[in-house]
From TrEMBL:
Domain AbiEi antitoxin N-terminal, first and last residues per copy: 5-54
Protein name: AbiEi antitoxin N-terminal domain-containing protein
Length: 249
């Protein structure tokens, strides 16, 4: 039974105890003992409570791992690889984040995890902001990831999850790699005036034409909320330009 069960689980690579119960017909109480034994033998590895990954027979347990995007996409449902991780995936930034960022609308008790030495950060957002997601093949898995345009507006929405505005601004040097009209629609759909203002300012700076309405408010926001409140002001978009973008030229 143990060998047959492992063969079935190996096709999934990542599985939950509920899935094992459904496949085997064995009670969860008995399964916990079985899975504990399989883990001690190095045949499976627990990635979080009730969730495991199968270790191939030819692999060394201490050296084996799945791609971090695959593991990240299994930690919560629904989910999408996002923010700094997606920026790097599309080549918009050369910086390799030390954390894998995952976006979700679901509640997750533990939002920061370390699995196989990799850090994961789960960011919960409102359902209306969960869109612009595509699936890409990674090692036999279809992994959900925010598309190029959604990645940009997400980072403008929450710059702290992308290393700051300088990192997302690098994407504007590759303006031919994203759809400007889709970017505009996505920005409006986010329902956050800060996204509109940061996008408007960056498009002006990089001489990218975009049809956005100027803010009517008298209040100013920080271009980069992760940086100190100092710098010149831009009256058109009502932003305090508290970072230097000249180095990106």
């Amino acid at each position: 039974m143990r060998i047959e069960l492992l063969k079935k689980l190996a096709r999934k690579k990542i599985f939950t105890i509920e899935e094992v119960a459904e496949i085997s017909g064995v009670k969860k109480s008995s399964l916990r003992v079985l899975l504990s034994r399989l883990e001690k033998r190095g045949l499976i590895e627990r990635i979080e409570r009730g969730k495991y990954v199968v270790i191939p027979l030819e692999a060394e347990r201490s050296e084996y791992t799945l791609h971090e995007f695959i593991i990240g996409s299994q930690l919560v449902q629904p989910s999408a690889i996002a923010y700094w991780s997606a920026l790097n995936y599309y080549g918009f930034t050369e910086q390799i984040p030390s954390t894998v960022f995952i976006q979700t609308t679901a509640r997750k008790k533990k939002r920061e995890l370390t699995i196989f030495g990799v850090k994961y950060k789960i960011v919960r957002i409102k359902p209306e902001k969960f869109f612009g997601i595509k699936r890409t093949w990674i090692e036999e898995f279809q992994v959900p990831i925010t598309d190029r345009e959604k990645t940009i507006v997400d980072c403008l929405d929450k710059p702290r999850y992308c290393g700051g505005i300088v990192e997302v601004a690098k994407a504007f040097k590759n303006k031919n790699e994203f759809d400007l009209e889709k970017l505009r629609r996505y920005a409006l759909r986010m329902g956050n005036s800060a996204v509109i203002r940061r996008l408007g300012y960056l498009c002006d700076y990089f001489d990218i034409p975009i049809d956005l309405q100027k803010p009517k408010t008298r209040n100013y926001i920080l271009l980069d909320p992760t940086m100190p409140r100092r710098g010149c002001v831009d009256g058109k978009w009502k932003v305090i330009v508290n970072i230097e973008l000249e180095e990106l030229e």
